[in-house]
Design a protein that fits this description.
single chain, alpha+beta, Aminopeptidase, 2 domains, 7-stranded mixed sheet, two-stranded antiparallel sheet, 44% helix, membrane
Length: 333
């Protein structure tokens, strides 16, 4: 008795199977090439990051005096290397931080809260009595800045990143520009920013984050502008148009890294670990606030400063300690 297989003419199925096998092998080969290419590109990008950034051993990050708490806290310091002839730099010596932010990544990865600390806050600085918050970096570099800020907010600092404002120019251009909202027209450094959504190139970004004198509330509006710029950059960085474009990603790293100093825990491997914590965070889950301040004051040498709002600071310290910053920001907003 003949089986169906026996009735099938010889050679009928083999070419079909052969073609299928070849097709599968071709697909697997393509996927393997893509995988190898991705690994190779990741390694290349890691090399560019490690060779481009300056890395520091910040001993204060391991300070036993800093309270432990859930989540990850990253101190972001913005510095400006413009000539001392620039009016915004008058009277400033050493490296002072013009922007001071603490970014908190929630322990469960549900969001990122960024708290700006006004640079003119009058605070205790170890070994230097009381002074403006931004003087800590001038007196003792990243270690003293970290120590001063974790004393202020009451929890440890896990990482520190110091960026020169000049890096914003190349980064913005590498991303094809960024869009920021302007709620009232102003002019700064010869450039006018009309009310509404403004598309900034690199030069425009620099003028935008530096502007202080056009505003009645001076540094507070500059802080809001810096927050808006940071949010716009993050939005552009995580967009599909950037993440799927190796050329754009490489240019962004190349343009930013020479102006970036990080602790040695933020090498390429550390950045991958950090970005893994952020993998599920949407841009809408980034929240920003500025620490409220008390009355202004004047130091013995005539310098004007801002006092700390102790009630607001106490609430902020509790929020950092118990990982409830998201609710606290919504309440203070």
């Amino acid at each position: 008795m003949n089986t169906p297989e026996a009735d099938e003419p010889r050679g009928t199925s083999r070419p079909h199977r052969s073609r299928t096998r070849k097709l599968l092998l071709s697909i697997l080969s393509i996927l393997l090439v893509i995988a190898v290419g991705c690994v190779g590109f990741a390694g290349y990008l890691a090399h560019r990051w490690n060779s481009g950034t300056q890395q520091l051993n910040v001993t204060e990050l391991q300070s036993p005096n800093a309270a432990d708490g859930p989540g990850t806290n990253i101190l972001i310091l913005g510095t400006d290397t413009r000539s001392e002839d620039d009016p915004d730099q008058a009277g400033i010596t050493g490296t002072r931080s013009d922007a001071i932010m603490v970014a908190h990544i929630a322990a469960n990865g549900s969001g990122v809260q960024v708290v700006s600390l006004p640079r003119d806050l009058w605070v205790p600085i170890k070994g230097h009595g009381e002074d403006k918050l931004n003087a800590a970096m001038s007196y003792g570099g990243a270690n003293l800045a970290v120590s001063t800020i974790h004393d202020l907010i009451g929890v440890r600092i896990d990482h520190v990143a110091i960026i020169d404002f000049e890096g914003f120019r190349g980064l913005t251009d590498a991303l094809g520009g960024v869009d920021v909202p302007v709620y009232k027209e102003f002019t700064s450094y010869g450039r006018t920013f009309p009310e509404g959504l403004n598309h900034l190139d690199g030069d425009g970004a620099l003028s935008f984050v530096r502007a202080r004198y056009p505003f009645a509330d001076g540094d507070f509006q500059r802080i809001r502008n810096q927050q808006a710029f940071l949010k716009a950059v993050i939005s552009k960085l995580v967009s599909v148009g950037t993440l799927t474009n190796p050329v754009k990603v490489t240019r962004a790293v190349d343009q930013l890294s020479p102006y970036l100093t990080v602790d040695d825990g933020l090498d390429a491997r550390g950045m991958v670990s950090l970005l893994t914590k952020l993998r599920g965070v949407e841009i809408s889950e980034f929240r920003f606030m500025t620490l409220p301040t008390g009355d202004p004051g004047t130091s013995e040498d005539g310098a004007e400063y801002l006092t700390v709002d102790e009630d607001a600071l106490s609430e902020l310290r509790t929020a950092f300690t118990y990982d409830t910053l998201d609710r606290t920001i919504q309440k203070m907003d």
